[in-house]
Write a structure and sequence with these properties.
about 0% strand, elongated, membrane, Protein-glutamine gamma-glutamyltransferase-like C-terminal domain-containing protein
């Protein structure tokens, strides 16, 4: 009796669109790097192939498509859980943001500009954020501390510069997404970060907050 109430006129196009709609859910917005785009395309291609094969092989025809649709929902849930774990890992920002020899803010800024000229926006974002943090260290707004993460730097700097706290956290999230999550960003994101870095170079800290 339950099966009689389940719509069975699900065709290939309808099933494909259902899968596309599920994978377009905003929960996936945090996972925008290119690898995820390729994953979505691969899943949709496999959906089409599975539906083509199931139409002639599954007993009951359309009823088999209903079963396949349920399987697709389970796959979507699994992807959703995986994406959530990746998002949490990226937000944790557990690794130090500085690597190798100690360089000045001017050195990191120059590295960012070279990366932009070469078309490597991800590297430009990484170097510009490092320039921002190193500049705050050079000015005494932040203490020089090895092993500091991007999130820690944003929180510490936000205490001394409360008016810029939200922007500093946003800059740290951008760094984490690019550096740890492989997120692809455009020149507008880099320019926003560059403007923030230049602004922080002259911002006056609240001594009492420190």
């Amino acid at each position: 009796m339950l099966l009689a109430e389940v719509p069975v006129d699900i065709g290939r196009d309808a099933a494909r669109e259902a899968a596309r709609a599920e994978l377009a859910d905003p929960v996936y917005a945090e996972a925008r790097p290119s690898w995820f785009d390729r994953l979505v395309k691969w899943v949709l291609d496999r959906v089409g192939e599975l539906i083509d094969g199931m139409v002639g092989l599954v007993p009951g025809g359309p009823v088999g498509l209903v079963v396949l649709a349920l399987v697709l929902v389970a796959v979507a849930v699994a992807i959703r859980l995986r994406v959530g774990k990746l998002g949490r890992a990226r937000r944790s920002g557990g690794a130090p943001m500085f690597e190798g020899d100690v360089r000045s803010a001017a050195d990191h800024r120059a590295g960012a500009e070279r990366a932009m000229a070469a078309g490597d926006i991800g590297e430009a974002v990484r170097e510009r954020f490092r320039a921002l943090v190193r500049g705050l260290e050079e000015r005494g707004v932040l203490d020089e501390r090895s092993g500091r993460t991007a999130d820690e730097a944003a929180v510490d700097a936000g205490h001394a510069l409360p008016a810029a706290a939200d922007r500093l956290r946003g800059a740290a999230m951008l760094f984490d997404d690019v550096h740890y999550g492989g997120r692809t960003v455009d020149s507008a994101a880099y320019q926003w970060l560059a403007d923030l870095e230049l602004n922080m170079a002259t911002a006056r800290p609240m001594v009492a907050a420190r």
